[in-house]
Amino acid sequence: MTTEYQLEDVIRKAFRLMDEQDRVRAAKLEQLRQDIRDGLDSGEPTPWDPEEIKREGRKRRAARVPASQDV
Q1: Which of 36, 53, 59, 61 has a CA that sits 20 to 30 A from residue 69's CA?
Q2: Which 8-state DSSP code applies to residue 67?
Q3: How far apart are CA 40 and CA 22, in angstroms?
Q4: Torsional sign, CA 63, 64, 69, 71
Q5: Terminal alpha carbon distance of the chain
């Protein structure tokens, strides 16, 4: 049988969990805001070519991985 004390304990734990989730959510939101500020402060955007990035990555990988280990 559930006692009043057990119910209060469950409710207290639930409130603690909700508070912790609120703190985590607030920290994540603040980090997102900081990331946005950093991005805006980083200067003018420059065009980029995803294919060129892939080519450069493949070239770097080929330079450090022997052909027999290439995947």
Answers
A1: 53
A2: G
A3: 27
A4: negative
A5: 61
- The C-alpha atoms of residue 56 and residue 43 are separated, in whole angstroms, by 24
How far is the CA of 40 from the CAs of 23, 29, 35, 46, 62, in angstroms?
A: 26, 17, 9, 13, 35
Report which residue type is found at 42. Answer: S
Other beta carbons within 10 angstroms of residue 59's beta carbon come to: 9
* C-alpha of 37 from chain center: 16
How many Å apart are CA 19 and CA 27, to the nearest integer? 12
pTM equals: 0.57
Q: Which residues contact 62 (CB under 8 A, 6 or more apart)?
A: 70
Of all residues in the chain, the percent with pLDDT exceeding 90 is: 80
Arithmetic mean of pLDDT, 48-69: 89
What contacts 24+ positions apart, CB below 8 Å, involve 13-21?
none
